[in-house]
Structures are given as C-alpha cells and as structure tokens.
Amino acid sequence: MIGGMAPPSDHTDRHLQKLAALITQRRVALGLTNKEAGAARCGLSPMTYRKIEGGERVTDTSYAKLEIGYGFRPGACREVLDGADSITLEDGTELIEGGQIRDHVDPARLAEVTPGALTKSASLHAPELTLGQIESIAGGFMEELRRLGVVPKED
Fold this sequence. Notes:
Elements: H1 12-29, H2 35-42, H3 46-53, H4 60-70, H5 76-81, E1 86-88, E2 94-96, H6 107-125, H7 131-147
Antiparallel strand pairs: 1-2
C-alpha cells in the first residue's frame, strides 16, 4: 500500500466491462437500435453514453440518469461496479450478463404449482419415500418459501 491507501481493485476493468455488457443488453431489449437512442432515453449526451457502453467510468450522476432511463433500481450500476453479477430492474426482474430478462414470477402461481412439482420430482427421484413423507417435505418447503417472503402467506 502507498500512503495507507488500498490499491485499486484488480477487477475494476472487468466490472466496467460487465456493466457495459448489461447496459448494451438492456438497450437492445428495449428496442433501442443505437447508442444515440439509448442516450436520448436516459437524458445523457451521446458521448457520455458511448463511454458507458465502451466500459469507461462516468460520474455517479450519469449512472443515476441511466438507471432511471432504463428502469434499473437505484444504485444498480454501483453494485455491478462493486462486483454484482446482475442488475435488478424496478419490477424485480434481473438482467444477467448473456441472459435474457424473464417475465416476473407470480408468487401466487408459484405457491400453487410448487407442491405438485415437488411431489412429482420426489416420486421420480426418491421412489422409496412414502406419499406422506413427500407431502411433509413439500409442506416444509412451502413454509420456508413463505418465511422467506418468496410466496405469500396462506390466508
């Protein structure tokens, strides 16, 4: 260390490139065919926007404008620069590098179909379990999902 300062992260360039890839991916997913359209949507100058997609660092204010324009949760760009692997959108979906944005999972639908899926899977992969054991496992699993807030609590 020089003068008590920690050295810059070895991952800075990699994180900037990951952020650039995620932002490019989001622009394309939004149907914006070029960087100028992305810049306009986010209220950024074309030069600043090109820097972002080019993997160059810009100001926090520019990242905030981009987050608003692209529907990212506040602070999402900073999280990627700090090492996160994805960006969370305002609607809760995640944008993962190289992946596609999936429709948001309906928690009530998940709660409805999970017990049956668990029962089917358990009976195929652990045929020695009784139906009562499988139902017990499914019940415990669903209770844990409720405790974690993934599916709604039963009324």
